[in-house]
Amino acid sequence: MKIKRIGQVIAGLSLLLFLAGCATGSSEKASNFVEDSVLTAKVKSALLKDPAVSGTAVHVETFRGLVQLSGFVKSAAERSRAEKLAQDIDGVTTVINSIVIR
Q: How many angstroms separate the CA atoms of 45 and 73, rounded?
């Protein structure tokens, strides 16, 4: 009888620990999503404000501080400028420049 009861207690504790871990993971995911969204907005804003870059032609995606730029621009200088603007944003750890020159 005692062994069955101990097994139930252990199973209950395991379930609680599992659920606590899931809750922590969810809040971390939500926090990462918000941080990434803020970085995306800051990069996009910098691109739109800069007269040397066609900000509407550059797409920005962010994942945990890594920013990927894509889209089409008219020159290598514009491509480089977009990358530099993204790198200068606080919180950006890496920039992958997938912009294509037309």
A: 17
The residues that bridge with 98 in the sheet, in sequence order, are 70
Per-residue pLDDT of the chain (102 residues), as tens digits, is 455 556 565 665 555 556 555 555 565 666 777 799 999 999 999 999 999 999 999 999 999 999 999 999 999 999 999 999 999 999 999 999 999 999
Of 77, 34, 85, 78, the residue nearest 60 (C-alpha): 85
Beta strands, E only, 15-80: 58-63, 66-73
**48-80 as b/e: b if 16+ CB within 10 A:** eeeeebbbebbebebeeeebbbebebeeeebbe
How many angstroms separate the CA atoms of 99 and 89, rounded? 18
